[in-house]
Design a protein that fits this description.
The protein is built from 16 helices and 13 strands. The protein has 384 residues and is α/β, with parallel strands linked by helices. The protein has an eight-stranded mixed sheet, with helices on both faces. Strands 2-1-3-4-5 form a five-stranded parallel sheet, sandwiched between helices. It folds into two domains: 6-122, Rossmann fold (3-Layer(aba) Sandwich); 129-383, P-loop containing nucleotide triphosphate hydrolases (Rossmann fold), CATH 3.40.50.300. It has helices at 15-28, 53-65, 81-90, 102-122, 142-156, 174-178, 186-190, 198-204, 229-242, 256-264, 276-291, 315-322, 334-343, 347-350, 355-366, 370-383, and strands spanning 6-11, 31-33, 44-48, 71-76, 94-97, 129-135, 162-166, 206-207, 213-215, 245-251, 267-272, 300-307, 328-331. Helix content is 46%, strand content 17%.
């Protein structure tokens, strides 16, 4: 069976630019160029902005809202910051200043085809699981857990899809941990919620080389509309239909939106460390979630991070204090963890054999559905 050809509409004023793009398409393959009179909806519109760029972008924005085009690539001689920001706001997937850099356009085409293929596969309508990672206090390592658990979930079962949502609404750090430079963040969703569907969300997400999809928080303060509980409900419902796992780094916030995330989560990983204040906070948070009806006890799992054997507080004392058995214990490995963070890499990519990396892999297995865990055990017996 031949791979599907994606339809593309080219609208250029500059004949030289038009020829360059046509040559790239010919070399790349996978696209059918729609002629001027062809009325089919293009999967991709590649448009060259002219002197009246604002008027043209308003027109393109209306086409996107009416679902008359799929993704949009833009190019222009004028690459001033105001034009670039307007292009981002309307939802353009790529913007190419002129003169055109051929390698950048080639890479953008390949990325578009890959994301479109993933979108088609996700159209089978998954029934994904939401796992939120909540810190009992600041600095306990929620982002470290979220990033490395996401990576481990990809690895423990071939073909699983994972999206990582950064809900640290002030300077979230997920992109730093994965060394990615996202073009979009959840602020694009909050102000375009009426356009939210599979295609729009796929265009907003950033794909890490490992296969993890990321929805980051804004990197700076500029009046972004914060996500509301209703927006999060709609967003997570869509993500569950597209991905096997939706991981949310919620940080330590207990606002209405974060509490809605807790309420919608299949599993709440409450991260703590062996310190008296942290364990006390863990106990209070868990009791609050239970008493207010945000989560049932079996959905709350306590994860102990940075464990060392020579701590003043024993594991037995910790469980007695929080009145609940620890779900998982992540060993302390400061040097390896900091090396991974500073390099912008998950632990699996820089220290695959380290005890802390193996711990995340085993936790990912423990979070799999029971039937998957049983199947894994059968294969282990078979391989002996």
């Amino acid at each position: 069976m031949q791979n599907r050809l994606y339809t593309i509409k080219l609208i250029f004023r500059n004949r030289k630019v038009n020829q360059i793009i046509a040559d790239i398409i010919g070399a790349t393959g996978g696209f059918e160029v729609l002629q001027e009179r062809d009325t089919r909806k293009p999967d991709l519109l590649f448009f060259e902005l002219g002197p009246d760029a604002e008027k043209e972008m308003t027109m393109i924005e209306s086409l996107l809202k009416a679902n008359e085009v799929g993704a949009v690539f833009l190019t222009a001689e004028n690459a001033e910051p105001a034009v670039l920001m307007r292009a981002i706001r309307l939802g353009a997937k790529e913007f190419f200043p002129q003169p055109i850099k051929i390698d950048e356009v080639k890479q953008a085409f390949e990325t578009f085809k890959l994301q479109s293929k993933e979108l088609k596969q996700s159209g089978e309508h998954k029934s994904g699981k939401i796992i939120s990672i909540f810190g009992s206090k600041g600095g306990v390592g929620t982002t470290t857990v979220a990033v490395n658990l996401a990576m481990s979930l990809l690895q423990v079962k071939k073909g699983q899809s994972v999206v990582l949502v950064d809900m640290n609404t002030l300077f979230g750090e997920v992109p730093l941990f994965l060394e990615i430079t996202p073009k979009f963040h959840w602020g694009e969703i909050t102000k375009n919620i009426e356009r939210l569907d599979n295609t729009f969300l796929t265009n907003i997400l950033t794909r890490h080389e490992s296969g993890i999809h990321v929805l980051p928080s804004p990197a700076y303060l500029n009046g972004h509309v914060r996500p509301t509980p209703d927006i999060m409900s709609r967003l997570l419902d869509l993500m569950k239909s597209m991905f096997d796992y939706v991981l949310i780094d919620t940080g330590q916030s207990t606002n209405d939106t974060s509490l809605r995330v807790v309420e919608l989560s299949d599993t709440l990983l409450l991260i703590t460390i062996l310190s008296l204040p942290c364990l006390a906070n863990t106990n209070r948070l868990m009791k609050s979630f239970l008493d207010l009806g945000y989560a049932e006890e079996d959905r709350i799992k306590i994860v102990l991070n940075r464990y060392t054997k020579n701590n003043d507080i024993s594991l037995k004392d910790a469980e007695a204090g929080i009145k609940k058995e620890l779900f998982w214990i992540i060993p302390n490995d400061f040097n390896t963890t900091m090396s991974a963070i500073n390099k912008g890499k998950p632990l699996a990519q820089i220290a695959s054999r380290a005890a802390i990396t193996k711990s995340f892999e085993e936790m990912a297995r423990a979070l799999q559905p029971l039937e998957v865990q049983q199947e894994e055990k059968k294969w282990k017996i078979f391989r002996r």
